[in-house]
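Usage

Read records sequentially. Each one opens with the input sequence:
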Amino acid sequence: MPFFLGHFLIVEKNGLDNYILCMGNPKRQHYISQCYLKQFADTTQTGKDPRIWIFSKDGKTKELKKVEKAFVSKHIYSLKSQTPNVPYDYSIEISLSELEDKYALIFENKISKRKPLTDEEHIILCAFVAAMMLRTKGKKENIEQNLDQIIDMTERMEKAHNLPPKKSEELKSYKNDAHKLNLASLLAPITELIVPMNLSFLCVKKNSKAKFITSDEPCSLFNPDLQWQKMYGYGLQQKNIQLTIPLSTGVIGCFCWNDLRGYINISDERVQDHNRMIRGTSHSNFISSSPVVKKIWFSKYPMSITFFIKKVIPNKMRMFLLKIRYKYVRRR
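and closes with the structure output:
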């Protein structure tokens, strides 16, 4: 079975052969895992295969789709094999599959029943969350867009200095596997950053009709200290950072450095505020167990009018006054 060793994913000897023997040709690979998506299935749908509602980010289009056919791409984690007569190396896909199996058991036996996790289970959950941060198609596109800019700059420099396109061709070749290698190299370090954070589970109250949604970017980072500016990004080691991930329609996992632990019931209003953030941080799609959407999910501000009065309005006034002051100084 795959396991973590240092900062890389290692597959046990014969693991690849056994995996292909059981799974056939695993070229269709989920960038949002099936075991995760099943927790957001529409329970009103009849039939054996679980189905989810997939909405465009703006909510204008929706589609009911089988989990096994959702968020799939060919060879998104496959590497070209160095072994003769074996076209692809599936070691990353194998490792992710094994991690998903372990997480699914933890969710079924512990999290869904609101039981405390052991240290080992906590680490596995952290590794699963780290994988969900790194494996998405949005992350892949972001990495490739950044490389495209570097390649374009390199080509212009080569042309300007009348050099052969050696370095730009190397970068183009690297781009093909950049997302896969990024996932493999960063999974363990990101897991190590998440493990020491305090973990809590925010739960929908019993008998409540409110449900969490999720998205094609399941993990959300939020720092209240940085929400009103655009200069600094979010990082896991920031003092007030919050890393959240919906684990089912009834539970959100929350990692932070504040003293917040255990299973905590939250109000329906807070559930919808979390859904607002989940939809807002999605890449292209958000996922629901129902075909019905809420207006609050598309709002720029939280439901609480108290929050709006105390936080938003004063901040808007400060920004307005700063702009006036800046214009006055420029005129002088």
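Summary fields computed downstream for this record:
- Residues 3-300 form one domain.
- The mean pLDDT is 87.
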